[in-house]
Amino acid sequence: MVADSSGPVFLFTTSEPTAAQHTPRTPKVQVSRDDGRTWSAPRDLSGDIKAPAGPGDWFATGPGHGIQLTRGEHQGRLVVPVYFAVGDRQSVRLVYSDDHGASWRIGATATYDKSVLKLGEQTLVERTDGGILVIARNGVVPDQTSVHGLARATSSDGGESFDGDFRADDAVTAPPTHPALLRQRWDGGPYTRILLSAPATPKTGNNPVGMNVRSSFDEGTTWRHHDGAAGNAGIRIDADHAGYSDMTLAGNGAIGVLYEAGSARFRDVIRWNWFWESAIGLP
């Protein structure tokens, strides 16, 4: 994640030893202050964000981006999503920093039995009221033909707690996957706009088809086609197989999408696609 628009870049990773060692995954953070040309030494965050340490436990950061809050009493706060599993229970968590990344604290945490909600990779966006919309992969969906593979929740206190339980998100058409949210337009103009990228087809054969970008003009409550018409599949930017994705807003206003893709399998290559807002239409 990038702080203060053009400030330091924070890279969150986890080290994964060989299975024979039976040691936990270790979350770490590195910082670059020259646009990624050089990086600080990795700093272990296990104690700060309480990564589980059992031999069969799982902990992961990413693969998307964190956000910096720009509104309300928590303006300037850095918020990063992580997720982990202990036994038959899986959790999503937000970790945050109020001192520009010098220290990190545990924030909102939601834990469910894997048979109820199997929450994984999350994506975040700040709403115009200062709240946070969280959309997570929901791997509990057993049906390979399902396109309701995401779950959602919100936070109204800067990521310190969730407002309520996560719920399966029927407002967006997508298989269980890592999606990406991006604030494209704030209030103060004729409309607000949040974008969401993810495939829109079933995960048949664990190989979804197409990368789609959807638009929301009501802060993530509903999703629309590129021209504002009702429909939650959005516009397709790549017709090949596709999987995980992330998005960014370039300094010149272009929208960039980085995603897994391939003509035969969804993760054969990593592709970069960019376009102007005019390419996805106006409401």
TrEMBL record:
EC number: 3.2.1.18
Reactions it catalyzes: Hydrolysis of alpha-(2->3)-, alpha-(2->6)-, alpha-(2->8)- glycosidic linkages of terminal sialic acid residues in oligosaccharides, glycoproteins, glycolipids, colominic acid and synthetic substrates
One protein family per Pfam: BNR_2
GO molecular function list: exo-alpha-sialidase activity
Region (Disordered): 13-47
Superkingdom classification of source: Bacteria
Full protein name: exo-alpha-sialidase
Record organism: Nonomuraea fuscirosea
Positions of the Sialidase domain: 2-255
Enzyme class: hydrolase
UniProt family annotation: Belongs to the glycosyl hydrolase 33 family.
Matching SUPFAM superfamilies: Sialidases
Compositional bias per record (Polar residues), positions renumbered to this chain: 13-24
GO cellular component, one term: membrane
Gene3D superfamilies with a match to the protein in the record: 2.120.10.10
GO annotation terms (biological process): ganglioside catabolic process; oligosaccharide catabolic process
